[in-house]
Amino acid sequence: MRRIALPAALFLLGTATAAYAHPKLVSASPAPNATVAKAARVELRFSERLMPKFSGADLMMTGHGGTSHAPMKVAAGAGVADDGRTLVVTPKAPLGAGRYSVAWHVVSTDTHRVAGSFAFAVK
């Protein structure tokens, strides 16, 4: 009986930890703090499948020509790609030269909301 109980307990402990993990940002394109030649969209890849209904992002322009200014919202749509792990932010027009920030929020199947932000520049 003890031989069965220990492996069963270890299995439950391992699955419980995985079940309560939160989605983590694995990569982004453009990458945080990167300077790119052009950007037609922003892609954020997460460690877990996202719930599209509760996941999104705001894209803001924060500077232009070497100067900072109050954040200005960029008209863009956000949605989860077919892979279920990538949040795609697509501006209505290609991004011009300037500094941008992305403020994102996602929910995975664990139902916990996770949020973050990062900046990048277009030259």
Any descriptors?
mainly beta, Immunoglobulin-like, five-stranded mixed sheet
| Count of β-strands | 9
Instruction: Provide the spatial order of strands within the biggest beta sheet.
Output: 2-9-8-4-5
Q: Helical amount among residues, as a percent range?
A: 10-25%
Report the CATH architecture: Sandwich
Number of domains: 1
Fraction in beta strands: over 45%
| The top level CATH class name | Mainly Beta
Give the count of helical stretches.
1
Any idea of the CATH topology?
A: Immunoglobulin-like
SSE sequence, one letter per element: HEEEEEEEEE
Mean pLDDT across the residues is 88
The rounded distance between the terminal residues' Cα atoms is 66 Å
Give a quick account of the main beta sheet: strands, pairing sense, barrel closure: 5 strands, mixed
Radius of gyration from CA coordinates: 19 Å
**What shape does the CA trace take?**
elongated
Class from helix and strand fractions? mainly beta
Seen as an oligomer or otherwise, the chain set is: single chain
> Uncertain runs with pLDDT below 50, 5 residues or more?
9-18
Describe it for me?
- By secondary structure, this protein is mostly beta strands.
- It has a single domain (22-122), classed as Immunoglobulin-like, CATH 2.60.40.1220.
- It is 15% helix and 48% strand.
- It contains 1 helix and 9 strands.
- It has one helix spanning 2-19, and strands spanning 25-29, 35-36, 42-46, 56-64, 67-73, 76-80, 86-91, 98-107, 113-122.
- It has a 5-stranded mixed β-sheet with strand order 2-9-8-4-5, with no helix packed on it. The protein has a 4-stranded antiparallel β-sheet with strand order 1-3-7-6, with no helix packed on it.
- A hairpin with a 2-residue loop joins strand 4 (56-64) and strand 5.
- The longest helix is centred in the first third of the chain and has 18 residues, at 2-19.
- The radius of gyration is 19 Å and the shape is elongated.
- The relative contact order is 0.25.
